[in-house]
Amino acid sequence: MSPTQRLTSSHSTPLNDPLSPKTAATEEKSQQRPIPGQRSPGAPPSPAPPVKTTVTKDFSFLLRPEIYHSINPVNIPAAFRNSSKQPPADASLEDLLAKGHFRAAAIAAVQELTATGSPERPRVDPADHQRIFSLLYTRLACLTLIDATSIAAQEVRALEDLNAGVYIDETTGEHLVPWELRVLNVRLQALGFSDPRRSVMSYHDLAREAREQISKATIRHDNSARELWKARLTDLGIHVTGALIEMDDLAGAARHLSTLKDRGDGKMALSRALLWLHLGDTEAARRSVQDSGEDGKHAERVITALCQMADGDYDAALQSWQDLKGGVADEMVGVNLAVCLLYTGKLTEARSVFEDMVNTGYSSHTLLFNLSTTYELCTERNRNLKLGLVEKVADLDETPRGWEKNNADFKL
């Protein structure tokens, strides 16, 4: 797997964007080749302001315990399972998310939905759609973060058709389901029904709604609402491209990618460049970030370094990452620097860079996987080194980016 294939989602993290190609790929068997870095996941984004409605609807069909699956901790290393950092049973959902306990948060969300937890977690009111959908989003997003996307794809089926009348406020015509959950639902439904084309059509439906909302906001001179919906429309464009790539429709993805407009903040240029890298077109990736202004200078340097890696010019890429590392403290930069050291034969230096990042507090899957691969290259007796790494990471402070790891992170 090339560096370009691995970095399309380095700008977006699973919980920020559980729809990215990386999310589904996390459950696939990891390859042996070291992989470039990605930022660690952050806490779930706050949902948009909920729709206010006087209509009372019964959503008890989403509260049935049989919908939800148990989460087996067998793949969690003992150092994490037995750690004093494991949260108490009555920990609030907010605290669990703030400390990166995503598995516990997924369990807690279901306990509140189904009234199967402690008295401190009473069952949600079947008519409280705001709380129900918030809990569902937390559950599904957290499942994608703990490499349980297949479970999320099964559970999301309970929502069935989100265009059904039960999800619409008949008085205002507004959708009762938060936008974040609707977007996440598209991807998971496509996975659950093994129908990737379903996601492309559903994204286009959401895009049509976004354009309508932009027009309405413009008419009533609501600038904040207009910008919100423009941002959502832009994100949908990226998701459509990612879905086309997963369908192996690379020509369609390239055509669609060329139609996406930059909103002036440089984010689209960076996203476009990363997607071109995924498609293997380094020249198009470079063009995407050219003339992006002073604000986009860092992104241009990152894309240049990634293109050098994709072209196999690891010596030049190494120099580029070293220059970048001197100006920013970024895990992605450090991981790619170490990968370049590996490919230029500097195994000891690469190991040192990886270990220094762990000692600093970084612990993304990409960092741990690459360090574990480095241990395998260093010695045949690498298991003890990996177990020592497990202990070290388990001792790290909790963080919204995620604390608990699984065996796959350490190649155990």
Automatic annotation (TrEMBL):
Signal peptide: none annotated. Residues 1-53 are annotated as: Disordered. InterPro entries: TPR-like_helical_dom_sf. It comes from the Eukaryota. GO terms for cellular component: Golgi apparatus; TRAPP complex. Residues 1-15 have a biased composition (Polar residues). PANTHER family: D-ALANYL-D-ALANINE CARBOXYPEPTIDASE, TRAFFICKING PROTEIN PARTICLE COMPLEX SUBUNIT 12. This is Trafficking protein particle complex subunit 12. The lineage of its organism: Eukaryota, Fungi, Dikarya, Ascomycota, Pezizomycotina.
